Structure formats: structure tokens, C-alpha cells
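Exercise 7.
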Amino acid sequence: MRSIRLAALLLALPGAAVAQAGATRPAAEARLRPADAARLPFWQIFGDEALAELVRAALAKNGDVRAGWYRVRQADALADQSFARLLPSVNGVVSANVQPLGSAIPGAGADELVTRAQAGLEADWQIDIVGRNTTAWQASKYDRDAARGNRDALALSVATRVADTYFALIEAEQQVEVLDAQLEINRKLLELMELRFESAAATAQEVLQQRQQVASNATLLPQSRQLARTLALQLAVLTGSEPGTLAAVPAVLPEPPPLPAEGIPVELVEARPDLRAALARVDAADLRSSVAVRDLFPSLFVNGQAGWLSTRIADETETDAVWSAAGVLSVPLFAGGANLANIRANRAAEEAAAAEYRQLALVALQEVESAWLRIGEQRAVVEAATTQVEVGRLAYEEAEARYLAGLGNYLAVLTANNAWQQAQLQLVQARRNLLGVYVELYASLGGAWTIGLVPEES
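Solution. The predicted structure, written as C-alpha cells, is:
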């Protein structure tokens, strides 16, 4: 039944979205098989052990992820509570009373007392003749599945944030290295120009411009260091650690991982935890609509008691085994329209859940499509930025050599140096952005790895 519902919901999506066609994919290359891409946690695909360790720590210690585990436990308990309604309830009963014999037997002596004591078991059972409680129990199991999907979606979100923050931190550290190197180059160039000024080979304006360049570099450095410290604090909090306790991260961004093989929408639904949760909510709402309809049918209750009754009159005591059984058939006749209104409310909730699921599926397809497009575009940006850095270095070295040989002016050196520095910073940013798009792609594809998560006990 669930597979039929899933197919119907997917068929309701626009054809272009289901086909995932019309987009330009990156060129064919070695790619992960769908089974490997779904099974492997995406952060392991990057081959960066420091990143993997941080994500593992976040999944074990992050407060939001742990809260998701407790919500699953709550849903488990509620499902067990719903199942308990299918079983009879049994209670132990002990009672005793004392009364004048005259109130029990008219005409007897008023000074005589009657003492009665009873002990036994009492059982009540609502027989599920129309499947009302069974259906409600099945709905609660889908609620549990939805809670697990929400937990897995939260774990995926936290892992994605850790990866993004980790790459941003390395980017900030590399920017600091670039600015440090540029500052050293500019300081050496300033020393050289001051010597040339002393020998009348350079003007005072050129010396002042170079001093301004050194000051500009020195101003950018504290800002980049502050950004790196801020990102390190954020990463520590994401991993459930105290701020300031994060170990040093590698100085170089990892290489982009292999691309996953393209799949189909049904595989996406099965892999993405948020879609699994949304589908479970649709199924639960469907079953609750059925429960509302079954409330219109009769209910059968049975009751039974068994035990011992002890009666003491004066000095005589008599003990007997007693039992009783009863059954009640309750048929709803009039409730002011409450049952019909409950049916309408549950059917509306079912349609709302289905509409939310279809919209979420469209968003999921759009996220995958967008990530595929951005990977191709960002790769081109990285290639262009790499070329720009190499050309910028050669242009700076040529301008510097011509200036020192007296064949060029200082403005050409300053312009080439600034262009080279900006190209280096842009390359670092482009490589970090490319890794971020890979994270976005793998996160949008979901993965079966979240199903196997095991909570760390407090």
C-alpha cells in the first residue's frame, strides 16, 4: 500500500522535475556507484580524517542531535502505549467493609456486625472488532518513523554545517597565509625602494605609495585572523565542545571528491531523511483518517472478575470463590456531529501532509539540480582562478624586474602586485566554494548512513 501511495505522490510531481532533465551536468568521469554514495557518510568521501573526526564528535555530542534521539525515544514510548490498548488490562483488587447486621438483614440484632473482605483480579478489555485500535497503533508506528526521519535530517544538517564551517576555517587560515606572504613581499619591496630613494633612483611618492601598500596589508591581516578565530569557536560549539578547545585544522583544503552517479527520484525519496519523515507523516495521517471513520462503528467491551469473598458474622466466617463476567456493546447514535467533524479534520490533515510532501519533494529535486549545475560552474571558476594566479605571478615578476632595471615605472609594479594578491585570495575562496557545493550535493542526496546512527549514552 505504501509503495502505491509513493508512486501516486511522485506522479503528481511535474514531469520535468521527475525526469531531472534539461540541465548541463559536469563531464563524464569516475563516479561513485549509487550504492556506495548512499552508504558512505559524505564527509568520508572527502578523505579528510580531521573533518571525519569533527563530524563524528558532532553527531555524538551536539545538543540538537541528542534532542533528536530523545524525541525518537518519546515516539517509541507512545507507539508502545498505543499497542497496549490492544491488550486487556488486569488489576488486583482488595476491599473490605464493616456494617451492622441489621442493615444487611432486617430484624437482626443491631449490636451484631457483618465484616466482608474480598480479594481477586479484575480484567477489562475492549475487543478491537473493527480494527480501530490496531489502525491507531499502526499510525503511531509511522509517527515513530517520522521522528527517526527528523532525527536523521537533523544529523545530516549538523554534519553539513560542520563541513561548511570546517572548510571556511581552512579558507580563513589560508587567507591569513596569503596576506602574510604578501606583507613580507611588500616589506622587502619597501626596503628596496627606500634604498633606491637614497640613491635618487626612486621618488618620495613611490616610497609613500609602497608604505601605504604595506599598511593596507597589515590592516587586512587582523580581520582575517579574527574571522578564523570566530569560525574555530563556531566549530567547537557545533561539535559539542567548549569554545576554544578545538584542535588545529589542516592548512590546506582537501581535493574535491568523486561525483556521485545520477539516480532517479524514487531513490532520492528513499535516501533523504526529510522525505522519509514526510512520507511517514502522510501514512500516519491516512491511518488516522481511517480511525476517525471507524469511530462510527460499535465498540465491544468485556469485563471479568474472579477471587475470594470472606464474610464474618458474629463468630462465624465463611469464604467462597466468586467470579463474574459481563459484556457491553456500545453503538454511537448521536454526538452532535462530532464524529463527522473529526473525519473531515483528519482527511484535511491527510491532504495537508500529502501537499507538504509533494512540495518538499520538489524542493529536494531542485536542490540536487542546483548543486549539479553549480559544480560545473564552480569548477570553471577554480580553473580560471588558478590561471589568473599563475599569470598574476608572472606579471608581477616581470613588472618588478623591469622596474629594477629602470625600464618600467612603479605603478606597474603596484598594480601587478595587487592583482596577484587578489587572484590568490580569489583562488582560495573559489576552491572553498567548490568544496561547499560538493557538500551541498551530497547533503541534498541524503544517504542511508543516517539510518545506522547509534546514540552515545550520557
